[in-house]
Structures are given as structure tokens and as C-alpha cells.
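In the current project phase, we have settled on a layout for protein records. One protein thus recorded is set out beneath this paragraph:
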Amino acid sequence: MQSADENWDASGRRRVWACASHRSHTTVRKYAQYQAGSFQESLREERERGAAPPHAGALSDSDGRESGGPVKRRKSARMLRFGTNVDLSDERKWRPQLMELQKLPAFARVASAANMLSHVGHVILGMNTVQLYMKVPGSRTPGHQENNNFCSININIGPGDCEWFGVPDAYWGGVRELCDRHGLSYLHGSWWPDPEELRAHGVPVYRFTQRPGDLVWVNAGCVHWVQATGWCNNIAWNVGPLTARQYTLALERYEWNKVQNFKSIVPMVHLSWNLARNIRVSDPRLHRAMRTCLMQTLRAAAGTLNVVRARGVPIRFHGRARGEASHYCGACEREVWHALLVREHERRHVVHCLACARRLSPTLSGFLCLEEHHIEELAQVYDAFTLHRSAPLAAPVQIPSLVPTPD
């Protein structure tokens, strides 16, 4: 429990960026009891001190802003429980609540033809499904960018407030530099930035309060971190507008994640081919970026098949079942598309990418190759993916003016 613009180490004597937490599991019912009990306890403490009772959006009595300094903070420090990533994807359980979200405009809906993530074809929990976050004052979502730089929507159900910090996408490199300076991994670590240190480093910081009923739109690539200042519940999901900027940022992060050995939650190659099948693109920049991705991945898939055939590995057509999740390499966790190199390990068939398969066995001995699509079908999709030009407007009909002429 501490002030939103401060982060102290376990001793309470030094300000740091590292954000400490540990995982445990509970149910919505049990956390709601903890959440209500926390509020009742705060009311009781306020009465004992003879102060006016706080409203649901107020800071609790032990918030860091009321402490006299690091030493006092350490004495009153206590660990909080943050009910995070509650899955609301089951429409049988949450149908009335999910139906309420259909009232939102199309660009903000969980499922929409204009949302790239609706074209993935399978569930990505928390991205193309809704998640709930149940909070007590001081609950923190550490600094991060959304998975593959997709936009996100967060609605505060209330009754309390949340405080948000944000850094524009153009400055994410500066945030990463400071993470490195503090000995923290930008992608794998848990960190809570110091706004003053960011500004001194030339990184602008936005700060605002999200009140009950407020919808926050997190734009593509925005670095953000959030702290609850009251007892509240939030729902959130991701959206991918069909724009060149969104697609390019998602693809760039997809490639950078490979270099950083970080799993991309969104299978961008699989998504790109589904988009090529499902939509017509009229933006030349988006069309160029998507067509380049299709061309490179089709070439890579053909190259993998050539290597496999040259080593005498059997190839079988596997296809894709409706709603089947995308496949990732069991070793490096990169997306494996079209040509799945499968090997039995501990009675499980594990998918590998070509690089990891060759690392295990240069001759690919013991591997089987499964094809997800027919190459002819992929070639047809690629050829059919052309820039869509809307029909020109009809030329206006020229109506002759009636000008009186002399007899």
C-alpha cells in the first residue's frame, strides 16, 4: 500500500522500479468477501480515529500519501490482494453482462468485423474475450504495453476510482532504457516507473483519474500502469482497428518478441491470412504491409516443406479444425504456421519450428510434418488479395439551364 507515484522496496527505505508480488488463486465469491471486508475494516478504523468515514472512491488510511516517510511506511506496510484476470468468456455464465457490452459503438465491441482480433478464429483469453479486475485501494497493474501492441478498452464499474499513467508509443524505447538501467527486463519483468525520472529522461507522462463509468481507450503501443485509489471493479479487453498503423505496430512487436524470446500471444501470421480471406482492404499502406507478410510467410512455408522432403520426412495433411488454437514451438514458443514438425516426447506430440527441430536432430529423424493448408489454396488467397478500389462516383448529370432568348 503506497502512493501511486512512489514505489518502495521491501525495507521501505529506498525507492525502486521493481514491483513485488506473488501469485495465488481464489474464486470471485471469496475475493468479493475480501473486498467487502477490506472496506468495512477501513470504515471501522476511521471511526476509531474519530474521522469522517471515507466514501468508496477515497484513499484508504494506510495509503503512502498519509505516511510521514519511508520508515513509517514500512511499519504500516501490508500486502494487498488484487483479483486480476478473472475470465468472463463463458457466455452461459455471463450472458446478461456480456449483452450489455453490445450497447457500445462498433469500434469498442469485443466482437466486430472491424476488429482484427475477431478474425483470429479462436479464443485468446483477455484479448478477444472480456476479463474482470477486482480491486481494493492500492491494487496495481505494473507498467506494460498491450500484447503485440494492440489497443485496449477498460471500463471502471466502480464504485471507486483508478489512477492511470501513460507514455505515448513513440517514447517506449526511453522507458525500456530506464528499465535496463534499473536491472529489470522490459518484457519479462514487473516494474512501476517513477514519473519524475521519466520526465528527466525526456519521456512525457500522462496522468488522469478514471471514475466509475469512464471508458479508457489505450491506443496502440501506449505504455501504461494503473493503481486503484478506491474499491472498484474493472472490465477490459483488446481491439485491433483495421488500420495500417495498428497492423504495422503489431507485426513489429511480433518480430521483436522473437528476438527477446518472448511469446507473442497474437499469432500474427495466422491472423494475417485470415484477414486476407475475410476482408477487402482499400488502404494502400495496410494492403502493402499485409501482402508483404503473406508473401514472406508463404515463401518460408514452401522452404520448410522443401527441407523436410529433402530429408525424407513423411508429410501428412492435418488441416485445421474450427476454433482450433494456433500452434507454437514447444522449445522457443514462436508461432508455427502451416508446416508443423511434430515429435513424440513423454507420450505427447510436441510441435517444433524448423530451427528447433534441426537443433534437436539435424537429419530430422523421428519427426513428422503436418500440413495445415493446401498450398494451392494459399496461393489462391494470396492472388485474390488485391487492393480494393471503391467504385467512382457517377458523373453528375448536366441539366441545361433555361435561358430566355429573344424572338
The two ends are 96 Å apart (CA to CA). Residues 56-74, 399-405 have pLDDT under 50 and may be disordered. The first strand starts at residue 83 and ends at 87. Residues 247 and 359 are 32 Å apart (CA to CA).
